[in-house]
C-alpha cells in the first residue's frame, strides 16, 4: 500500500516562537489532516490536527509570513528562506489554502 502524498510540504522555513527563532531551515508538513512543524533534521517541534490550528497572514511585518497557533502556542512562519527564486507570496498562499482544505471535515 503506497503512502499518501502530503497536501503541503515546505522546506527552508524560518519557524519562530516569540521571542526567539526555533529554526531557520525548518519544515512544514500537512498530511492526513495533521500539521507538523519540524526542524531541518526532522525532529517534531509541534503538531496537531489541522482543524485545531489557526493560521493567517501575519499583518505586523513586511515579510510574507504566516501567524500560526498550534496547541495554544503562537508561531510565525516565513517560507522560502533558502530559495530566493521562489515566490514566497505564492508559497504562503498555498499553505493557507492547504490549512483551510485539510481542516474541512465532511459529514
Notes on the protein architecture:
- There is one protein chain.
- A hairpin with a 5-residue loop joins strand 3 (34-38) and strand 4 (44-49).
- The protein has a single domain (8-103), classed as PH-domain like, CATH 2.30.29.30.
- It has 107 residues and is mainly beta.
- The model has no long low-confidence stretch (mean pLDDT 85).
- The chain has one helix and seven strands.
How many runs of DSSP E, i.e. beta strands?
7
Largest sheet: 7 strands, antiparallel
What is the CATH C-level name? Mainly Beta
The CATH superfamily is identified as Pleckstrin-homology domain (PH domain)/Phosphotyrosine-binding domain (PTB)
Radius of gyration: 13 Å
Give the N-to-C terminal Cα separation. Answer: 26 Å
What is the CATH architecture assignment? Roll
> If you consult CATH, what is the topology?
PH-domain like
Uncertain regions spanning at least 5 consecutive residues: none
Mean pLDDT: 85
Shape: globular
Order the strands across the largest sheet as they lie in space.
4-3-2-1-7-6-5
